[in-house]
Amino acid sequence: MSTKEEAQEQTTQQPVFSIEKIYLKDLSLEVPHAPQIFLESGEPQIEMRVTTAAEKLEEEFYNVTVTVTVTAKMTDDRVLFLNEVAQSGIFRIANIPENDVELLLAVAAPNILFPYARETVSSTITRSGFPPVMLAPINFEAMYQAQQANAGNA
To answer: Tell me: the pLDDT tens digits for 33-42?
Structure first.
């Protein structure tokens, strides 16, 4: 084997984790009690829920989606707004052990996607007439470990 062929073979065996595309898959906003709700005062309760999902598209290509749902309710339980953002990305993963692929899909990819979702949530809520909602960072590794522990107990 020539040196050039050896170099090519080594290059093809290198681990690959790359972003192919980041896109906004879904966005919804509901303000069910507008415009009257803007005349009221009071501090709403903000609830946030984050979920992740991954699917294999084809050999070496995976789609990962981080869905963030933010609900604001008044003290009387009326919904101020409901905002849901599904931020997705297509990732190429090659020459990586299967155990590590799962970790990349559950932790690394969501860590890349979450800042985009967070910005979309903040921007959408602000554009709808409400003060910005700044979401705290998420520890996707802890979420993954909790899911693994729950799966082990089931």
So the answer is: 999 999 988 8
Question: Cα–Cα distance between 9 and 16 in angstroms, integer?
Answer: 14
Q: Is the distance from CB of 109 to CB of 53 less than 8 angstroms? A: no
Domain that holds residue 80: 15-130
Residue 102 in domain: yes
| Nearest of 108, 138, 101, 134 to residue 120 by alpha carbon | 134
Q: Which token pair is 78?
A: 């009326």
Is the Cβ–Cβ distance between 84 and 135 less than 8 Å? no
Between CA 39 and CA 35 the distance in angstroms is: 8
**Percent of the chain with pLDDT strictly greater than 90:** 79
